[in-house]
Amino acid sequence: MKQLQLNNGITMPQLGYGVYQIDDLTQCEQGVLDALQTGYRLIDTAAVYGNETAVGNAIAKSGIDRHDIFISSKVWIQDTGYDQTMASFQKTLDNLQTDYLDLYLIHMPYGDYYGSWRAMQDLYRAGKIRAIGVCNFLPDRLVDLIEAFDIVPAVNQIELHVFSQRRELRDLMTKYRIAPMAWAPFAEGQHDLFTDSTLTAIGDQYGKAPAQVSLRWLQQINAIAIPKSVHLARIRQNFAINDFTLSETDMATIATLDTGKPLILDVATCQEAYRLHNMSVVQ
Residue 279: is its pLDDT beyond 90? Predict the structure, then answer.
């Protein structure tokens, strides 16, 4: 399993298993067990997913030493602020049946995320979290957070896939050694990613599927990916990406697929809508 070193010196797997939208807790638990048995060692969840307990049960049943598993979770919008984040974090630990997290993220750049970051810095310094980061932070919010606090986020989890390559944001993150973590690495199937002719042609050279080409591309741009599937065959297929390397020509061809915009979540539009909503509430 390829590892990526974060800006605080710790390493994390570049390929993990995500559990977003696995609402059936029995199915979620089995999916995590299947992933761990396949060889995955990074599991990504979040408080708002409602399945942290299933993730914790699977890890406990797996028989794998806790220190060999890298667990990532997130604090949701309603729990931003110092005290709320502290309480949410403890609930997450209880759900996951652990006494520390490997990575804890602010889920969205809304609410009192300054208060959340203060809490997360304190938890990090107390040894309760090995690394802290954010999700969906665009350049303005990311730079603002960096300038306001002592600890630079180790990770920014963003929509990142072959159709939304986020070059400007990734360039900024490279400057601060912030690792990109790709949610929706398959673009949720948009643009027919699983049958895309360009990805299929590239994959045919290596006996790989478009999904595997997409994950390998993320690995070669030094991003972390957390694909989700509840099907064992697909879980195993997604894991089998370390036995081939995309050529420079392949990488250049994939670069042409970039639409230059997010396909799933337009964070900038959502930020403005959130701001206007709060203004109307105050008025």
Answer: no
